[in-house]
Input
Amino acid sequence: MSVHKDITKHSSKQHSLVKEFMKLDESREQAIEEALTLCEAGKPFTTDRINHITQDINALARQGVVPQRKTVTEEMVREYANRR
Output
C-alpha cells in the first residue's frame, strides 16, 4: 500500500508541474506576441517579461519533468518580426 501512495504522490507532483508549465508557457507566448506587436509597430519594447517567465519555466525544468525554454533577446524579436 505504501508503494501505491508513493506512486500516486509522485504522479500528482508531476501533473502539478506540467500544469504550471502549461500556464507559464502560455503567458510566455503572450508576452512574446506583445513584444512582436510593439516591434512591428516601431514602438519600444523589452524582453524582460518574457525572460522572467522563462526563468520560472526553467526552474520547473530543473525538476526534470518539463522542457526548458531559451532566453529571448531583443534582436531575436526583431529578426522574427522581420520574417513574419
